[in-house]
Amino acid sequence: MNHVTCHELIDFLMEYLDGELPPERRAIFERHLSICPSCVAYLQNYKATVEMGKKAMACDGDAVAEGVPQDLVAAILAARKG
Amino acid sequence: MLLTMESTQATAPPREANESALVARLRAGENGAYAELLAVYGPRLLATARRMMPVEEDAREAFQDAMLSAFKNISRFDENSKVSTWLHRIVVNACLMKLRSKRRRPETSIEPMLPAFLADGHQATPSVEWRNETALSLERRETRDLVRACIDRLPENYRIVLVLRDIEGVDTDEAATVLGMTANAVKTRLHRARQALRELLDPLIRSQQGADS
Ligand SMILES: [Zn+2]
Predict the structure, then answer these.
(1) Based on the structure, what is the number of domains in chain B?
(2) What's the pTM value of the predicted model, to 2 decimals?
């Protein structure tokens, strides 16, 4: 196989990005990306998705600064003594 | 097996130097030590529980279960590992246990959320690059809420893999262990979860790009 479809490339995108594809396969993927703007865009979207997920879910500085709610701390300490 | 922390926000302890002293005081059953552990590590661990459990009440319950389990099992803590790592794993496990016992909503299929392809293997809808400014506007509260809402729309079995791998920084093998799945199944689920999240975000970002230009 010296050719890959968009479907195959997108199915194995994570392996490609993680550097887990064998060199010949990787070269075929790169050749496809050099001629397929839609897959280049998909790849960019995919990476951006991961970053956006991380940023959106990252620790809210304010929430961390607020600490654990006092009633929850009290409940845990009381339950420990049981 | 140790948890691998890839993301900085996971559970970096603010006061590492006092770790072994704190563990010794916990082992000795010193009263103030329990409150101190909650004060030092609690906020980030509670944040982890909140990311894993969309319902606040569930997050609090799982966090409480985890902390009580940590207090009880402090004698099993291995001095060669980090307290933050050990506690993080306990919280993750407590959340997974609670999620399993709940299963509030029936598992939805991820298939409709995956990209569509034509018979010849081309993308049914050609992809368009997202401009950088769009990702940057994530600093805005409403954009963050929008992304979080999209993550919440993922089928539970996929959402949890995405949260563990991409957000909590749990590595593939560790995620496979805590989820009782093979490493390959974790990889497949992570890839599909990311693809589905991309599909959910794409129309939102495209409409924003259209409005901006
Ligand atoms: Zn393509």
Answers:
(1) 2
(2) 0.87
